[in-house]
Design a protein that fits this description.
- This protein has a two-stranded antiparallel ribbon with strand order 1-2. Strands 3-4 form a two-stranded antiparallel sheet.
- The protein contains 10 helices and 4 strands, in the order H-H-H-E-H-H-H-H-E-H-H-E-E-H.
- Helix 7 packs across helix 10 and helix 8 packs antiparallel against helix 9.
- The chain is 65% helix and 4% strand.
- It has a single domain, classed as Rhomboid-like fold (Up-down Bundle).
- It is mainly α and 205 residues long.
Length: 205
């Protein structure tokens, strides 16, 4: 396979991490461990800091999980040839930390949180930035994706979230998590685009 073909075609190997993540999310949901893993401000303040991270990997219920798994598949399909496994892991880690730390220190009115959507917003932000930087021919698409993301985030912060609360979802949407996750993903995508402008897809297979 030539280098140009590798750059154009997503490889099946880029899907191993989403598959592992999806499996972990499903297992955690089935395990019933959500109460001891979800982010809760009070428990973090009393010596359970892991909740800052683990809250991103548990959900309100199966409907909530299914929504996030669908988002994971769509985002990975869109950016599979831009985001390799190393970069994806970096995005997941940084976005998870940004969500937990951001909620704890910047969003004092949020008592608890669960869900992978903050990380997904970071994944989307990183992919759109890399698409914009690495594929000039796709600059229009990348710009539209970034504009749509920014518009969504701004709208949510202004109270214009499309699904701020839903009975079928199981609770209110914590839109601050979307913002913090997107900022974390944008940070990682920006760094990679600066230092890895040349060569094969960033992050490896």
């Amino acid at each position: 396979m030539t280098m140009s073909n590798r750059l154009r075609a997503p490889q099946w190997r880029t899907w191993w991490l989403p598959a592992v993540l999806a499996s972990v999310l499903v297992l955690l949901q089935a395990s019933g461990f959500a109460p001891v893993l979800r982010y809760e401000r009070l428990f973090v303040a009393h010596g359970e800091p892991w909740r800052l991270i683990t809250g991103n990997f548990v959900h309100l219920g199966w409907h909530h999980l299914l929504l996030n798994l669908t988002g994971l598949v769509l985002i990975q399909t869109l950016f599979a040839d831009r985001i390799g496994s190393v970069l994806a892991i970096s995005v997941v880690v940084v976005a998870s930390v940004c969500v937990g730390v951001g909620l704890h220190y910047l969003s004092g009115m949020v008592p608890w949180y669960v869900g992978f959507s903050g990380v997904l917003h970071g994944w989307f932000a990183a992919g759109a930035i890399l698409l914009l930087v690495e594929r000039p021919r796709s600059s229009v698409l990348a710009t539209l994706l970034l504009v749509a993301l920014v518009a969504k985030l701004v709208g949510e912060q202004l109270g214009l979230a499309l699904f701020a609360s839903s009975d079928w979802l199981g609770g209110a949407v914590v839109v601050e998590a979307h913002l913090y996750g997107a900022l974390g993903g944008a940070f990682v995508g920006g760094l990679y685009s600066i230092f890895k402008k040349q060569g094969p897809p960033i992050g490896g297979p």
